[in-house]
Design goal:
ARM-type_fold, mRNA binding, 4 domains, mainly alpha, PUM-HD domain-containing protein, 448 residues, RNA-binding
Length: 448
Amino acid sequence: MDRQWRPSFSSNPPSPPSPSHHLPSPSLQDQFSRLSLSGSDSASQFPNLPRPNNNDSYHHDLEYQLNRMRQLIFAAANQEVVPAPRNSRATTTATTITVPRTRGFVPSMMSWEEIKGNVLKYATEKEYSLMMINKFELGHMEGLKMVISEIKEGLSLILMNSCGNEFFHKLLDILDHQDIVDILKALVANQHEFLRICLDNIGTRGVQKLLSCLDSDSLEEKAVVMNAIRGSVVALAKNMNGFHVLKALTKVYEITGPILSEVADHCVEIAMDRSGCCVLQNCIQVLSPERDRIIREIIHHALELSESDYGNYVVQYVIGLKDFHITQEVLMALHGYLIRLTKNKFGSHVVEKFFKEGHDEFVEPIISEVFNENDDANFLEILQHPTGNFVAQSALRRTKMMHLNHGVCMGLCMYQRLVERIDANYAFLHSHIHGKRVLSLIRNNRFR
């Protein structure tokens, strides 16, 4: 009995005749037929295919090759090109089909004469921008001056385009320092346009890159940048993209008087902004006459800032400087409003900051005002308040630690008096969602 024919690479299976217009060229069909054979035989015929450790992965790669061949056959039949995938799991030595593209054709390399006059257009298209960078990397630098000249005429177009911004980044790595300075001067020539680029989600990245390329010792470059942002510091500080530009600038140059003066003039406005409060804290770190004026403005508006969702961070930062006289002035500015702040979502953080990092001399007057001995109703209200209970816990921790660390008798007396008053309100605290937190702190004697 004849054995059933099995496919192998030593013999070809008989194939029934089929109409020629349904099949591609014989060479392509032969490739497709060979790839359609069994996995084990394919492995011996195509030794260059990768050999995964498990069979499932191997058959997956084989199926990928079959699908790839089907695409190539379809492309040849329809006069199209199937681009090779960037991250293929397997590679093959099969013949690549090359079919001329009829539309969207980007040559692998163009001469600078062909590019001339179209740099702005090409820089904002991914394929062409990569081609120009490749020409520079290959050493074709004769067109560099032409490229610089043209992009200086349309920096906003390039910097606020995703492809153009990427091209700009790579170009800066190629240019010498004088060319970078020339581009900087062209960029800041129009201050309004420069600000618009700094505030743009894409443009800000290019400006930051440009600033990082400047010479920190060059007074000329520093003057150019400082003049460009003068009058725009508030707009930059109150915008997250602008904040990153200022941050990149401070990595190269120290913040100077004119900028600090502008910050001081708009201190409250900047402090109450999400990114502005960070800028203000950076400005306080700089020792200068303007720093003292900024701190005075913060102290003068301490109550308003303490109740602000972002301004409270600035007040906390000033207290965290641990300067006795500055902290004393802040406390004096808030005197009479501490109970109000204790019950405020943002102000309570400022009161806690006094307990956590203020000097020991300030603890007793704060406790006397917030936990008034003659106002038991207010005391209970604070213990049961969503934010007030955290202030009470901070007061307990600080008075206890004052005694343990420094042997301060007054600290122990204040702590014991607070514990007695809390125990007296046990009936109102043990089952209260916020009050039981304070109660558990003294019951378990845990100070987290």
